[in-house]
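Honest question from a wet-lab person: if I give you the sequences of every part of a complex, can you actually get the arrangement of the whole thing, not just the pieces? Trying it with mine:
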Amino acid sequence: MRRQSILLTGATGAVGSDLLRMLATRKDLSINVLVRRTREEPCERVKAVLGDLDVTARLNVIEGDICSGPSLGLTDRALETLRGETTQIIHAAGSTSFALPLPDARAANVWGSRNILDFARRCASLECGAFLSTVYVSGKRQGDFAESDYGDAGRGFVNSYEESKAEMEEMIREAMNELPLILVRLSTVVGDSTTGRVSRFNTIHHAIRLFYSGLAPMIPGDPGSPVDIVSSDFVAAAILHLLEHAPRPGVFHLAAGRESSNSLEDLIGETMSALSRFRPEWRRRSVERPIIVDLDTYELFVRSVEETGNPVLKGATRAIRTFAYQLAHPKVFETRHAAATLAWNGIAPQPSLAYYPRVVKYCLETNWGTRQC
Amino acid sequence: MQSSSHAGIQSIAEYLPAQVASVGELHDRGLLRGSPDTLRSFGFETVHIAGQESNIDMAIAAAAKVLEESDIDRDDIGIILYAAALNSSSTLWDGNGRSPNGSVLHLESVPDLFKYPASLIQSELDLTSASVVGINQLGCASIFAALRLARALIVAEDDLQAVLCVSADKFPAGRHRDLAYNLVSDGACAAIVRRDGETNRIVECTQVTKGALWDSEEIENEIIAAYFPTAKALVERTLTKAGLVMDDIALVIPHNVSLRSWEILGRLIGCPSDRIYTENIARVGHTIASDNLLNLRQATESGAIEKGDYLLLFTFGYGSNWACMIVEH
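Yes, you can. This is the full assembly:
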């Protein structure tokens, strides 16, 4: 039987690193990891992700760059070899920064994906190409957002990340007519459900830090709006399962959905409670719970902070602003399609509050990634 | 005789120095740390600056005025509560008693260890029946503590008929007058809290102290961030204790911090801006601890308040202290 050969991009990123760690312990796989050179050698970057993991898969680190055109930064020969052996693609690379100017976000998320799509078209044995996206391609829509829905429905986007991912989806949708592709839309990944471990600290973790520092007086949103978060282990297991078993083409939401989400008020309450439980001395600081306010009030506050020019408060409000504006556009992500595909293997999102406190604890113990746990 | 157990703020007077300076003039004189445009955008235009008068002079002027305007018998004043927001206001300086050396307090001035303003005020006003108590370390919330204590003392002591609350602060010469994006004025206020007072019956007084935020210079950002959620929580707690809701409040009597901050706090506590008395913010600025009483008096005189109206007074003082009071006019 032919050994499956997976091309993984974004292996050093938030989701990609969890995928790599999971894939690396499989015996039946060949994994080609396309890694960009930074100040560090690609191999060193991959080693840092794997740590002391017992790697049983056949792992090949390839230096390349999805943004360097259809060649992916490879030689013709290397490209040809890779095309010949690839049976599956997981495209996890891209920029998750919310603050990039749109052209830069496009360069990473649209043009890079176009190059991977071009690569996929030339893979003779391709069985499935999984392109990772975000449930927030829904932009400023409110209410239910189904897996069969696309884009912002003309409501606009909160940031360039969402917009660039929505543009990427348009491209993938077209290609679905000719290729066995799936789009996997992820909710906000916060950390491992068992250990709380965070591969890459994102805006949610930064918000937790601002709560801890007492620098987040208010959050825009509605107290009852659902906040959708998922654990990294659920996401990694689900992606690998979908890669092998999902009907294609298809779109799948890896989200907590209606059942496993909690309200914004509950999540803030749990954050404050976890901070005082895991760092009892923090209670002495008497940090008040941030107020949930309407968008107009938050805008007024942000404008005032901007006018003062205070760099610390400006940094804090900007950090909250990048993700929290989504909270002012409450929505529920339907997960019917993904749930049906994942259910038989027992893969399902855990209720958010069952594991979220462990993530808060991990943030505290590692001082948001600056200290060994 | 069985005494009743309520107290009201019967008479109020203020003293504002005659000298007025605009935001631009303060900037030109090097008395601003931040941008004049930001201060203007936040609603400030002018402040009062004391010249030769010391904070004690201002306190005595305000107290004399309130005694003169009130029909009270001076012998009924059983206690003087002298509230000082600035550390420099709670002592006398340089051994010169009432008006230290030209009345201008300099940063290098030396405090007298055992000479106190409260006794001096008692003596100057000839209030020989009154004992004195000094209140400080509460920043701009000092006068709220004085009013709260006055009410508590009247309730607790059957023979106490009236308490004179006085507050006065004068910024040291040369000190920046913008603090946490607010513009500081010099000024004083005085109020007589009377047993069975029919006006401004004190319904509820609350205060929150967050000692962790004591260092107003080092952790100014944390204090600014804590301001709104703590203020909202305290206002709501005070209303609940009083058995009222925000719709029952006819007028909010604010401290004169930035208009912008009141726009935000008004939204947070569910109070429309036309029910917040902000008329003095631009013209007077933030007189440290005297704002609320000054505003209460002027709101009364302007006819903005009717008999029986519930009023909510709120302030914040470094320390950090949030204070709230509900009175029935």
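Two things worth pointing out. The longest helix of chain B spans residues 220-242. Chain B touches chain A through 27 residues (CB under 8 Å).
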